[in-house]
Amino acid sequence: MSLLSAATTATAQDVPATRLVSVSKTYPGAAGTVLHGVSVHFPQRALTAVMGPSGSGKTTLLHCAAGLDRPTEGQVLLGDTDLATCDERQLTLIRRGRVGFVFQQFNLLPMLTAYENVALPLRLDGRRPDRARILEALRQVGLEKQAGRRPAQLSGGQQQRVAIARTLVAEPGIVYADEPTGSLDRATGRQVMGLLRDLVDRAGRTVVMVTHDPAAAARADRVVYLVDGHVVGTDPAPTVERINARLTAWEN
Ligand SMILES: Nc1ncnc2c1ncn2[C@@H]1O[C@H](COP(=O)(O)OP(=O)(O)OP(=O)(O)O)[C@@H](O)[C@H]1O
């Protein structure tokens, strides 16, 4: 079966995939408080983009939402699981099973082939990698023929597609992407955005993506704007023009 048509129904339709309630985050040292009582939700089966000036706290927000970091105050709910009540072991299980990650720098293991990188989440989760399923994930991102290549033998766009195949194979309900097109040229970025859209439109997943790229954000269903650690607005119908108008307003 196509991994892109295998919609998951881990949580009820009307519960947001993830909800942050009054989340604050303070780092020791110069950075101080970077999130100030942020309340925001990420609807299921939607692609949400998070935009904001550099240093506004976007990655911190994503890491708190994904259980990669803990907020100083406030609540993060993944479906109906309160991450604050989870110990490190439970958080690790959640990150392996329910959440997927796509990073700007791809984060593939350099010594492993594309095939082995895609198989890795299943191995880490104690599941036996099914060869047909891994090849199907690589086929869906157009890289079946490159299964035996290591990351250094692939272009940036191909590496990002391997990272997306790695996400597909683990079938998480929600995928967090931090600047997924940030290292790619425009055409390759468009291709990667197409795959992230497919995750939502065909596979029924939820995607939350931090981006500086108006063209990428315009492919989202909603844009959440973050400035100085505060959510300052949400756009339910983003277009490149509307996003650019916001960015210009910030610059001025
Ligand atoms: N682990 C950390 N320890 C201390 N300070 C941190 C840490 N991570 C982030 N910061 C600080 O928190 C602030 C917000 O960082 P964050 O990476 O969340 O912003 P951002 O909006 O994603 O920025 P950019 O668009 O430049 O990637 C910055 O001042 C940063 O230096």
TrEMBL record:
It comes from the Bacteria. Residues 18-252 form the ABC transporter domain. GO terms for molecular function: ATP binding; ATP hydrolysis activity; transmembrane transporter activity. Keywords: ATP-binding, Nucleotide-binding, Transport. Transmembrane segments: none annotated. CDD domains: ABC_MJ0796_LolCDE_FtsE. GO terms for cellular component: membrane protein complex; plasma membrane. InterPro entries: AAA+_ATPase, ABC_transporter-like_ATP-bd, ABC_transporter-like_CS, ABC_transpr_LolD-like, MacB-like_ATP-bd, P-loop_NTPase. This is ABC transporter ATP-binding protein. It comes from Streptomyces mashuensis. The lineage of its organism: Bacteria, Bacillati, Actinomycetota, Actinomycetes, Kitasatosporales.
